[in-house]
Hints:
The structure is a homodimer.
Chain A lengths: L2 E7 L13 E6 L2 E5 L5 H7 L8 E4 L5 H4 L2 H10 L6 E5 L3 H11 L8 E5 L3 E5 L3 E7 L7 E7 L8 H6 L6 H7 L4 E2 L5 E2 L1 H4 L8 E4 L7 H6 L5 E5 L7 H6 L5 H10 L4 E5 L10 H8 L5 E3 L4 E5 L4 E5 L6
Parallel strand pairs in A: 3-4, 4-5, 5-6, 12-13, 13-14, 14-15
Antiparallel strand pairs in A: 1-2, 1-16, 2-3, 7-8, 8-9, 9-12, 10-11, 16-17
Helix pairs in contact in A: 10-11
Amino acid sequence: MSVRLIFLGTSAGLPTVKRGLSCIVLKYRGDLLIFDCGEGAQRSMMIAGIGFPKNLKIFITHMHGDHVLGLPGLLQTLSLMDRKYDVYVYGPKGIVDFIMKVKELLQFQISYGLHINEVNSGIVVEEKDYVVRAAEAMHFQQSYAYSFEEKPKPGKFHPDKALALGVPKGPLWKMLQEGKCVLNMFGEPVFPHQVMDPPKDGIKIVFSGDTRPCESVLNLSMNADVLIHDSTFDDSLVDKAISDMHSTASEAAEIALKANVKLLVLTHISARYSSSTEALLNQAREKFGNVIVAEDFLELLISKNDVSLRRLIDPMK
Amino acid sequence: MSVRLIFLGTSAGLPTVKRGLSCIVLKYRGDLLIFDCGEGAQRSMMIAGIGFPKNLKIFITHMHGDHVLGLPGLLQTLSLMDRKYDVYVYGPKGIVDFIMKVKELLQFQISYGLHINEVNSGIVVEEKDYVVRAAEAMHFQQSYAYSFEEKPKPGKFHPDKALALGVPKGPLWKMLQEGKCVLNMFGEPVFPHQVMDPPKDGIKIVFSGDTRPCESVLNLSMNADVLIHDSTFDDSLVDKAISDMHSTASEAAEIALKANVKLLVLTHISARYSSSTEALLNQAREKFGNVIVAEDFLELLISKNDVSLRRLIDPMK
């Protein structure tokens, strides 16, 4: 299965004409996963034609306005649409208080089950085909990076090998395909790896959120297909990156290199690069070749062997 | 002086692809007045090229999410821009609590003096050249309509009349122009109306906010140049308008007619009219001829004798 990743807000701190506040959505097998929900996210979802399916999960990296001020409006809009399916929100300490207080202050009703979870490091969601894992990032407050990890797929089963090893067609084949050891017609054990190709890794995508370069995000990113990393500043502003707890373009590239990721996407772009992001791209590219700068309404179609890019709307117009 | 009025959010409840959440800005002599601040307002201001001048006032009609959820982000962005000039916010009961709680929950700093005022009916702002007046609207909560009223301008002074009445050029002319009675060279009183045309009415613009048609908004709207009125539904949904405390198109038109306004602008348009607002326009027009339906990025240039329209960006593209 492939993953659709759509960048809806790629700006840092304040929006610009071309970049909205932080929001990335991930579509996988009918599920919608939203990573951060800056102001304006709900409308960008409508413009991008992203519907609100039965399975809807929202992950907040940290409780700064530019990452979370679109959440109350989205929750309210889902209610105005008379949604009945549950909605799950995951975030750091403070997320429950924020949503409940704003809901109370603005007196809005929720038409669906709303489940808000304050997360810890580790697996925060486990579904049949994927997990979402959180790791502490290095920012001002409690702040999380998240990974979406498709579960490994069993390798191809070879009937000829099974027959040659004395395992007849039938329930024993199913057991082997499920990873179990069976006994053949001679009473000898036959192991799955003898009749199947090795399991295929699933797709892995990592969102750093706002962060200084750090071990925990590096570890979370190991061998990811796509790493979306904070790249608020170019290298000439490394001191500002340190004081503001963000990363520079080449710091993001170093993490991508060490983590052996396939593609690095720079995001959370400071408004000072409104006219050009070339400096960011060039500085990153010196350390890590396969890098792009995120844009609003850029879509990545990610399979295990390939990533294709498409612009849903040209934000440069 | 003319007034620039720019519609930035003309949708009701939830945004659509073409309409953002409630926000209208008014520019007058370098002052910026913002009426309602729905989610996304700050970015629409950037897209429309509206800067943030020294004199900045924000008026909130009521504490529903679609009218106020863009306010925390705007206040935060002004701070990120390192604004030093004071910002004044006016709104109903609850506005102080909302801003202070969100500021605390999201831990953002404010770089400028922030003055938040819970208003009552009557004049809420008086400046040299204009006042802003509030009147209670009829909605679920405490809800206000606001009028912007340019102060009357003195009529044209006629030097020939002053000379003929025995008032020589000099300080006495200034006193007459300031509305004071003077004594002429024969010791007789000369009154301003003898040497000046009658005062010219200033421009008056009224924003109803969300409301059922009501006396207080009608009174506030008397002889306005422009009335911007809730027109969430067309007449076939009058029952829904009553239960949701909104107005239909022809109800808005009746208020415009009774108040003797020059131009009616229908706004707060339900998402159900995304493909066409013809029904709203036609129903209103049957009762009141000079009516338009608001659109995002529509600008009105309003002088006492004329209103011209311009689309800053074509939202239908």
